[in-house]
Design goal:
The chain is of the alpha/beta class. The protein has 17 helices and 12 strands. The chain folds into 3 domains: 169 residues, Histidine kinase-like ATPase, C-terminal domain (Heat Shock Protein 90), CATH 3.30.565; 134 residues, Response regulator (Rossmann fold, 3-Layer(aba) Sandwich); 114 residues, Four Helix Bundle (Hemerythrin (Met), subunit A). The strands form 3 sheets. The chain has a 5-stranded mixed beta sheet with strand order 2-4-5-7-6, with helices on one face. The protein has a 5-stranded parallel beta sheet with strand order 9-8-10-11-12, sandwiched between helices. Helix 2 packs across helix 15, helix 3 packs antiparallel against helix 4 and helix 15 runs antiparallel to helix 16. The two termini are 34 Å apart. Pfam families: HATPase_c (PF02518), Hpt (PF01627), Response_reg (PF00072).
């Protein structure tokens, strides 16, 4: 038996957001198939668990190997389908089906040998890069409590079936796993916001984390309500009917000493575009609307968890920028698996397509065509997500979701942010990939 076959695989089983996992898989696989002129379809059989316990990196490696092979052996104009379901016994079941050259029955047991290579459609030159991938993939799958099998006919494509054992995480268990050793403090919060729907959402998020909330719907009311020692945190909407959040911040700093003021945090639908402006104007931080639990939690930890100051200052500004606009975890995983070329190729496609997307989006916005706005936002979200442009992906998600509170009040601002920032974000991604490629 080969030394590599005998070695025990060390698995790192952790909670995996399976919904996001599939979205990333669909985005990048779809991009790879598109570049070859193939159709790619992900077919989830619902219900699927939101989170599972598995080695996400190993599972991604196996699936990427199977899908890459399917794309490689499928001629232009064909298609690759991936079906996903969750079976009894906590089993994730994947089927990767292509319309490629197929595998003769006599060869099907051999393809999982360590150094075997499938011959091309004429039975001659071997196709590169398949044997060791399938051998290692099967070994990984078996160590993960599953297996890989194949069914195929020459000229009619092949279907590879992957199973792995991956227990679902119940919601209450998920909540427990997500808790930090140190609970968040319960704060008295002054929320300054004039749009009722935004108030409802922000209050629910704040109260979910155990905070008490008072609401002021004008700047005048906020200034009347504020007293030193009364509030631990002040959240200030930037656009109010009588004054801006920046005006309120300046007024409070004129009236009171610095040690009498809690953190003053701006609320805006346009975080990245103006964040430096807000901080320079005296805000302590900026949060995006609609308010989310992860963003609020991170901000509270920033001010109340007292991390080491030197550790806070260590990262360079460009690293902060990259983390803000890119999905660096996803990008690092895919560069490790397949190298930087696929990301760079996708980036080139994105740069060509984005001006057209923006032109249509702005036209639909001017025409107040909600259906058109949503459709274009959906396209941009998918394209950006496939190459790790998280900020643009998040804006696309907001633009494509008219059910969000105050969507009609905020969508023009989101489109404007996307228009002004997408090229900067692309530049950040190019620099990040170039740096990662040198490691």
């Amino acid at each position: 038996m080969d030394k590599m076959e005998r070695r025990k695989v060390q698995l790192d089983n952790q909670p995996v957001d399976f919904t996001s996992f599939l979205a990333d898989l669909e985005n990048l696989s779809g991009l790879q198939a598109q570049q070859k002129g193939l159709r790619f379809v992900l077919e989830p059989s619902l219900p699927l668990p939101h989170k599972v316990i598995t080695d996400g990196t190993r599972l991604r490696q196996i699936l990427w190997n199977l899908i890459s092979n399917a794309v490689k052996f499928t001629p232009q104009g064909g298609g690759v389908n991936v079906r996903v379901r969750y079976d009894e016994g906590d089993i994730l079941h994947f089927e990767v089906e292509d319309s490629g050259i197929g595998i003769p029955e006599a060869e099907q047991d051999k393809i999982f040998a360590m150094y075997y290579q499938v011959k091309d459609s004429h039975g001659g030159k071997p196709a590169t890069g398949t044997g060791i991938g399938l051998a290692v993939s099967r070994r990984l799958a078996r160590n993960m409590g599953g297996d890989i099998n194949v069914t195929s006919q020459p000229g009619k494509g092949a279907t590879f079936t992957l199973t792995v054992h991956a227990p679902a995480i119940a919601e209450e268990v998920e909540d427990t796993l997500a808790e930090d050793d140190m609970p968040l403090p319960a704060l008295n919060v002054l929320l300054v916001e004039d749009i009722e729907l935004n108030v409802i959402v922000a209050r629910s998020v704040l109260e979910k984390l155990g905070n008490s909330v008072d609401v002021a719907m004008t700047g005048k009311a906020a200034l009347e309500m504020f007293e030193p020692g009364e509030y631990d945190l002040v959240l200030l909407d930037i656009q109010l009917p009588d004054m801006t959040g920046l005006d309120i911040s300046r007024e409070l700093k004129q009236r009171f000493a610095a040690d009498e003021l809690p953190p003053l945090v701006a609320l805006t639908a346009n975080v990245l575009k103006n964040k430096k402006e807000y901080l320079d104007a005296g805000m302590d931080d900026v949060l995006s609307k609609p308010l989310s639990v992860p963003a609020l939690t991170a901000m509270i930890k920033k001010f109340w968890d007292a991390p080491d100051e030197e550790a806070q200052e260590a990262p360079a500004a460009d690293l902060h920028k990259a983390d803000a606009v890119l999905d660096t975890d996803m990008l690092e995983q895919y560069i490790e698996l397949v190298g930087p070329k696929l990301i760079n190729d996708g980036l080139a496609v994105f740069e060509k397509m984005m001006p057209g997307y923006m032109s249509v989006l702005e036209s639909n916005l001017t025409a107040r065509d909600q259906k058109g706005i949503v459709e274009e936002g959906h396209k941009i979200k998918g394209a950006a997500g496939s190459i790790g442009l998280r900020h643009i992906q998040q804006l696309g998600q907001q633009i494509q979701t008219p059910d969000l509170p105050a969507w009609s009040d905020n969508v023009a601002e989101w489109v404007e942010e996307m228009k002004s920032e997408w090229q900067n974000d692309v530049a950040v991604l190019k620099a990040w990939v170039a740096k990662a490629s040198k490691k």
